[in-house]
Amino acid sequence: MSAEMISQVDGGRPAAARPGRAIRPVAGVLPDGTAFFAPVGEVILDGPKVVCHLCGRSLRSVAAHLAAHGWTKEKYCKAFGLERSQPLEGPETRKLRAAALTARLIFDPAIRAGSAAGRQRARSGDLARDAAAAARGRPFPEQRRRKAARSAGTFPAEIARARRERADRYLAAVAADAARRHGQPGLREFVLARTAAGASLAAISREAGLHKDWMSRHLAAVDRELAESVRRQRADSRDAGWLPLLQRLGFPDVPSYLRERHLAQHRTVHGMATEIGLSQHAVESALRRHGVARVPHAAKRHAAGQRAA
Known about the structure:
about 300 residues; mainly alpha; disordered N terminus
């Protein structure tokens, strides 16, 4: 936006424009009676300049100008709902300051030492802890509230889809890098080779230098068919120990045994574990693996239902 750069002299005649002077309507009044000339929670740019809330002037650096009002930047940002990190300078002024600081980093030992100390505090986490402690109990400024409201109202479905696509690309890149480091052309070949050798997904994740749960959590997102193949393979390997026991009881596979005993005959998990000589954890795992809903106290519930009938 462009400010009207005129002012009034005695007699009501417009005078020549004075640099930095702008006629603006009063936008509001602070609780202490101080008038302000720009909306609370916003920074108004006037070309390469920034509008001062306190006087309405357009300046290259409001931060340097605040001393004329007897204000500090911290007080200014708090009064007008701005974030503490909000720059109070125009974009061109910020570029000039950045260029000047780059030169000082090269030639000024004190600046280099201060920069190194700041980076060390950031790496050690001290900077983040101090920032969190300073922000504790401090209300969000109006500027941040407005940013959050705008973000919430701008196509949340599209934003979520873009983030999901970006996350999927990252996971695919991590998987491809892990396979390449182990001499495999892709993740599918790497995982199938290791599972054929008897390795678990946790072991494969560790071999790839990832978190032990990485494959369990993200394999389906990277390659859904591979994840389903591994799931079936793991289910078959876990069921292999059951088959000799179930065949003696007349059941061809684990799902048929679980449905007959648990859903039809209302056997409890403890009862099934005792019958086949396995742990309750193994029976519970089999119920989850084959999608059989567990009914707590199945036998007691069935008996109570029969008595009620």
